[in-house]
Specification:
397 residues, mainly alpha, two-stranded antiparallel sheet
Length: 397
């Protein structure tokens, strides 16, 4: 079976691949702020890979059939930014995941290579290696290699637009490049025909795992390198307190509530209905964005989506799974109200009364100063280095 012949609707992929890792962990001290973690990947790769992580950042899980290496990550960077990888040669993975926007695209919902609109907002890729599940509402997608099949080969919606008719031509484009054959031969040594879809996907996944964001002003303040302003500190305290209650869904080192890493015995994968819609007075969300209900078929899963990481949130607007909230200030107003009221149009309804809404979402009293302080804190989560780091940049520019 070819990759393109699999059922690949992004919302429907339901197979789960086993994940195991073979790593040697070494404690070390490096960088500003002292304690950190170093891990050397001992899998069958052409070179070793070293994670250099600050204190508080655990080692990501890596499938043992796709070990990290410097050469593989660099090959993945080229492929991630290469428009020739799409069916019509017009769009790269990076077209919907721009480094300058923390690997989002600034649109409410993304556009595929043929101009077809995706129903959902492009998610950021920084620290994606720590995500317990991938995409907004699919509890079965847990590996980047598995998830990549949907944007590459999916036809509902069309994203990269690779299919049975053109996949050989796309591979031929890559093979004809002056640089790629040597890179593939180095990374996948011993393979007679190393330029394959499997190896392309593995390389892109390795690159995505390498995108670590850990040097925001907040991180540097945690390491004692800078001081937060009074407003930022008040916002941090609100964020972590029972008044604003943001920490319930965004309290991890990655500012979300679904994380996976080495040493974690129990991986929790909650999904939440936040009262964004209530179009029929019975809790309905607009099709096809009805949360994990689309997979589970359970009525109580209506409108349940994964809580997004808040790292770099100031540069990843617009917000929510469908990009329907434009600014951080509007997001705070939405949560303070305990849901959204839409007064007219096809989506009219009172989300505050959605029967499936999470108990964590209730009306709270925030002053204008409280909201300004929270926004000030959220802006400290922007990692400016991530937005310009040449390790993640477009090599074709």
């Amino acid at each position: 079976m070819t990759f393109a012949s699999r059922p690949l609707n992004r919302l429907k992929v339901a197979c789960v691949l086993p994940v195991t890792v073979t790593l040697v962990l070494v404690a070390s001290l490096f960088g500003c702020g002292g304690g950190g973690t170093q891990a050397i990947d001992t899998g069958l790769s052409t070179t070793s890979w070293t994670w250099r992580l600050p204190a508080g950042f655990p080692v990501p899980v890596v499938p043992d059939n796709n070990p990290m290496s410097d050469a593989k990550v660099e090959l993945g960077r080229f492929l991630f930014h290469d428009k020739r990888l799409s069916g019509n040669g017009t769009q790269a993975c990076a077209s919907c995941h721009l480094q300058s926007l923390a690997f989002t695209d600034g649109r409410a919902t993304s556009l595929g290579s043929t101009g077809e609109a995706h129903p959902r907002n492009a998610q950021p890729l920084a620290n994606v290696a720590y995500n317990a599940t991938l995409t907004w509402a699919n509890f079965s997608l847990i590996d980047l290699e598995q998830q990549a099949l949907a944007p590459l080969f999916g036809d509902n919606p069309v994203e990269m637009g690779v299919n049975d008719r053109n996949q050989a031509a796309v591979l031929a484009r890559i093979s004809a490049d002056a640089d790629y054959p040597a890179r593939f031969a180095s990374v996948y040594a011993g393979q007679t025909q190393p330029i394959t879809w499997e190896n392309i996907i593995k390389s892109i996944a390795a690159f995505q795992r390498s995108i670590i964001s850990a040097n925001s002003r907040y991180d540097r303040a945690q390491r004692g390198e800078v001081l937060l302003t009074a407003a930022e500190t008040r916002g941090l305290n609100l964020f972590n307190g029972e008044k604003a209650e943001c920490f319930h869904c965004h309290g991890s080192f990655n500012f979300n509530d679904q994380t996976r890493h080495l040493g974690l015995r129990l991986v929790d994968t909650p999904f939440h209905n936040t009262g964004l819609y209530n179009i029929d007075g019975k809790g309905g969300f607009p099709f096809p964005n009805r949360g994990i209900l689309e997979l589970s078929g359970k009525p109580e899963d209506m409108g349940k989506f994964r809580a997004q990481t808040l790292r770099n949130v100031a540069v990843t607007a617009p917000y929510m799974h469908d990009g329907s909230i434009a600014t951080l200030e509007e997001v705070l107003d939405f949560y303070a109200a305990g849901g959204r009221v839409i007064t007219s149009g096809p989506h009219a309804g009172d989300g505050r009364n959605n029967p499936f809404k999470s108990d964590l979402v209730a009306a709270i009293s925030l002053t204008a100063q409280d909201k300004a302080d929270l926004v000030a804190f959220l802006k400290t989560l922007t990692d400016e280095d991530l937005l310009t780091d040449p390790r993640f940049s477009n090599p074709f520019q």
